[in-house]
Amino acid sequence: MASGRLLQPKPIPAELSVADLVDQFFFAYNAARLSEACQLMTQKVLRPNVTVGLTLSGALTPAGLGYAAIVPLIEAGFVDWIVSTGANLYHDMHRSLGHQLYQAGPVFDDLALHREKVVRIYDIVFDYDVLLQTDAFLYRCLESPEFQRRMSTSELHYRLGAYTLERERALGLPYRSVLSAAHLADVPVYTSSPGDSTIGMNIAALRANGYEVGCDTEADVIETTAIVYNAKRDGGESAVIVFGGGSPKNFALQTEPQLQEVLGVEEKGHDYFVQFTDARPDTGGLSGATPSEAVTWGKVDPEMLPNAVVAYVDSTIALPIMTSYVLARCEKRTPKRLYQRRADLVESLLSVYRAKWAEVKPREQPKKSHNPL
């Protein structure tokens, strides 16, 4: 006898909330996976004892989804740490500076756009001068004394967030960038490949001119691993919510292999894994593969595999739907403000690591590690 949820379709009414649409009409295939992901978020992931990491790849902020969806999630306390492509953070600055991006069709004469000094991101267009003025803003920020040393990308972005927030307020804009919102909520924001964006390009130019600004990627590895380690202590749990894939996905998930494989700390893997992607596992493009494959690396707790959902759907569709759903179904959470706690979190992890190495024969011990903060 067949079993499972009885599908009882009915006509969709004229007035229906997004949350009810997801619960009542997303019946099968990736609509059902999207529904499962939303329900997992509200029923388990967004509980107070879960530390939630969000990863972002693809052109989400140029499409307006930073202010529309990511910022509301941050402000509701639903995001505790972020790994993003640098491009998402850079292009999000345009509107913070009062610049405009425009929706257009996906078919263009790109040679004509080039002659007219118009930049295209698929079906989004804006003037080339927007890049130049954003670069000038970035350069002025990054040449400030406070940036003249190597620092984790979380610190770099936190400091940049103060500048974007100040500019938004000075211009009287209703807009709030991801960096501004993260700064206000003390949400650490990391970039796994800091050189792979215009932010990194400007840092390279500054270093060529004798400035000391730079990104400490090793500090990023330790900080993110410390966040996950401390999330799991005393009965807490860790969740990773992935939009797209790419380097941000693997960087967030590698925190568990860093604990188990490299640091020798006993752990099992992340407790919750939700991904929205249009990539396929059989072509090598899924960036860290499926949840079950991630189990073999120690990235996902095998006992928690039922709490993993992959919805094969465009992130620009899934992100606003998921945001609307959780805002409607969940109470806001108290922010964990992990940015201000980074030094203590790192020291907590390193004390465990050092204690393990203290048990090794002196000749086998590595040089004493230090707190990168």
What does this structure look like?
There is one protein chain. By secondary structure, this protein is of the alpha/beta class. The protein has one domain (27-363): Deoxyhypusine synthase (Deoxyhypusine Synthase). Helices cover 47% and strands 12% of the residues. It contains 15 helices and 11 strands. The protein has helices at 18-25, 29-45, 65-75, 86-96, 110-115, 128-142, 153-170, 178-185, 198-208, 217-232, 246-253, 255-262, 291-297, 315-329, 342-358, and strands at 50-56, 81-84, 102-103, 118-121, 124-127, 150-151, 189-190, 214-215, 237-243, 272-277, 308-312. A 6-stranded parallel sheet has the order 7-2-1-9-10-11, with helices on both faces. 43% of the residues are buried.
Rg value: 22 Å
Q: Helical element count?
A: 15
CATH topology: Deoxyhypusine Synthase
> In order across it, which strands form the biggest sheet?
7-2-1-9-10-11
Level of helix content? 40-55%
The separation of the N and C termini measures 60 Å
pLDDT average, as an integer?
93
**Proportion of residues in extended strands:** 5-15%
SS-derived structural category: alpha/beta
Q: What is the molecular shape?
A: globular
Any idea of the CATH class? Alpha Beta
List the domain count as a whole number: 1
